[in-house]
Amino acid sequence: MLESNVSLDELRSLITRHAGRSGPAVGGLLLSAADKPSPPTATVAEPTLAVVAQGAKRLTLGDRIYDYGAGQYLVVSVGLPVTGQLAQASPERPFLGCGLTLSPAVIASLILEAGPAAHTREPGRRSETPRGVAVSDAPDDLLDAMVRMVRLLGRPADAPVLAPMIEREIHWRLLTGEQGATVRQIGLADSRLSHVGRAIRWIRDHHAEAIRVDDLAGISGMSASAFHRHFRAVTAMTPIQYQKRIRLQEARLLLLSGSRDVAAVGFTVGYDSASQFSREYRRLFGVPPGQDAARLRQQAGDLSCTPSPV
């Protein structure tokens, strides 16, 4: 416990020092700092590791809620439409977090090099379809590796050489840790997660088109019933619900980027009915699209925190 506390203390110090400052990037490292809670924000989360050093966050995926705080980490294993918010943050104790983009290629390489040692330590879970999001307490070796990764922001001469090695170590700590079953699936071309991922990518690339579950099952190489079951296990949504989330989040981006014709945006993302678009948009985001876009534009220039990993 002492080592964990020491690592968290240094991680907090490093994030406070470097968050929001310009400088050379270090791999897929992300830092996040904020001095007040935030409202729920919808985004599409890519495969990512997020570690909280101080404060707390909440992530919602479909009907699942994930709360994670200081000393915990969250893993997203596939592109998912999620809603995230800062739950605990204040000027006295700001939210501090860091994250890393997860690499399927690095995971696949580690699995090949390590062989049986790369298998999760929870063999009883291997036959289950992994969920797309998981939360665990961060072990000391993972926190230590994250500290060394963030240190490189202040050591630009070391970063090109050391960052790839520490990145591999972080992936290894995840692969052999409590959420190893989920992380392992990211690197396997024939895993259930990768099969579902094919359908997810197709929906995201063709979100404005009508979809048929049978066609998505074919893309995934599964029967329709098996595909539906595994898709829901990973995403906490049906394929139609997933497509709707992607459509509405894409519409929000279009509105924020300057489009003021609400009906045209609805048609662009795949809605045939402007009223249905406005109704479903309000159901997800709480306000009508035009009002939401105006509020987001007003807030865009008044952000007090750096981007959050998830």
From TrEMBL:
Pfam families listed in its UniProt record: AraC_N, HTH_18
HTH araC/xylS-type domain mapped to chain residues: 197-295
Keyword Transcription regulation found: yes
Keywords: DNA-binding, Transcription, Transcription regulation
Domain of life: Bacteria
Gene3D superfamilies: Homeodomain-like
PANTHER family, sorted: ARAC-FAMILY TRANSCRIPTIONAL REGULATOR, TRANSCRIPTIONAL REGULATORY PROTEIN
Name assigned to this protein: AraC family transcriptional regulator
Organism: Planotetraspora silvatica
GO MF annotation: an example: sequence-specific DNA binding
Keyword Transcription regulation assigned: yes
